[in-house]
Amino acid sequence: MTLSIEKSKQLLADSKQYLAGGVASSLRAAMKPTPLFVESGYGPRIRDVDGNEYIDYLLAYGPLILGHAHPSLAEGMSHALKRGVTYGLQHSGEIELAKLLTEILPCADRVALSGSGTEAVMLALRLSRAYTGKSKVIRFHGHFHGWSDAIFTSFPSADMKQAAVGSASDNIAPPGTNGQSENSLQDIIMLPWNDLEALEATLLREKDQIAAVITEPIMCNNGCISPKPGYLERIRELTEQYGIVMIMDEVITGFRLGLGGAHGKMGLKPDLVTVGKAMGGGFAISAVAGKRELMALIENGTVSHLGTLNGNFAATSAALATLRELGKDNGCAYIQMEHTADQLVQGIRALLKKHQIPGLVNQAGPVFHMMFTAETKVEDFATFNKRDAAKYSRFAELMLEEGVLVRPSGLWYVSAVHGENEVTATIEAMDRVLAKL
Ligand code: PMP
To answer: Domain check: are 317 and 351 in the same one?
Structure first.
């Protein structure tokens, strides 16, 4: 079957005449056979302008934890929009949301609201540097922390240098894009993740210059790789010992692995946590949550935190509606999401076996990474890079023809409204696709 996507193709051509590149985020240009134009989304499904319908596992790159057009969110928003979108002044929704966040996120004494994950990370870095009076930041290969000049490195590739020893200058990453200052990453030290030795050696040598260690709790952006037992706990111990801020970037895992995020689930207390994506159910909102002493720097005016639309009424209402829905019935949504993801992952593993296609799935609750690889385990970035990315991209294209939208990189999101019907249809579609692959 060949997908009829003529209208999408035409709209892309039209779009390119006005919108730089024809898409609003560089990542979206990569979609094959063409970036799709959407007519509407409802529940776990999405329909394109050519009338094709897909089960949606892209979920807008993560925010749609309640699927499309969830009644609770739609209702919350129709009420909110009647009162105006944004005021540039305070409103009680901000207090309600901030209070809720301090209740559900174990690390949160105080929170600060922003508009995107990128901005939340920028603020977290700024707070860390101001608090410690130091400037260097350790981050890890294969993690992603947004596209600001302060931290955006080139997209991970198999040949990326992964120096673990030597001086910090051996571990400086190249800028992620043309136009980013050559000097913007001078203070960023890149290390391999899950490698305690590399981290300990670097910290011991350069602790007096290091303001923060920033890490995703699970390497969701590349392979959904879990931390080795004790790894994050050791980061916590060492950072505490050396007066370094531990930032956990929970833009993907926040409110997804549980209402308290990954750190809640793992029983860890980083100094700062960044959250976004799922928080607003599709509206642009993010937050930094953290320790009183650090957040006090915003309170006392020594650290600037700006943004015209920060804490706007529409986005805070969306976040309140989303988080309240997720918290209903003792977090029943999480049981549902995990169950659906488990069913999918079991089905995928069985199909890989049936079709004798070398591949595997790494799962972290309702998010998982499927890859084609001859490796039996993928527990670090270097091994992840041995996967057959081109084959997966072809697979994603064939899945689309079968009515299943998956991200070409291999990361799948499951929402609280995906269920048995979607799982069955997805596994049946995949059976046909793997037979062709
Ligand atoms: N941190 C992580 C872990 C992310 O995955 C992302 C986005 N994929 C970001 C930060 C940046 O978030 P945003 O796209 O909302 O700026």
So the answer is: no
Question: Which of 197, 203, 192 lies closest to 160 in space, CA to CA?
Answer: 192
For residues 57 and 405, the answer to whether their CB atoms sit within 8 Å is: yes
60-95 tens-digit pLDDT: 999 999 999 999 999 889 888 999 999 999 999 999
Co-location of 217 and 109 in the same domain: yes
Could you tell me if 100 and 314 are in contact, meaning their C-beta atoms sit under 8 angstroms apart?
no
pTM reported for the whole predicted model: 0.96
The pLDDT tens digits for 172-186 are: 778 889 999 989 999
Tell me, yes or no, whether 1 lies in a domain.
no
428 C-alpha to ligand 1 centroid (Å): 32
Which of ligand 1's atoms lies nearest the C-alpha of 277?
A: 15
Q: How far is the CA of 391 from the centre of ligand 1 (A)?
A: 26
Question: Which sign does the torsion angle of CA 202, 207, 212, 218 carry?
Answer: positive
Domain, as residue range, for 390: 6-70+331-436
Residues touching ligand 1 (Cβ under 6 Å) are: 116-118, 121, 144-146, 216, 221, 249, 251-252, 276
- What pLDDT is stored for residue 169 in this prediction? 52
| ipTM computed for the complex | 0.99
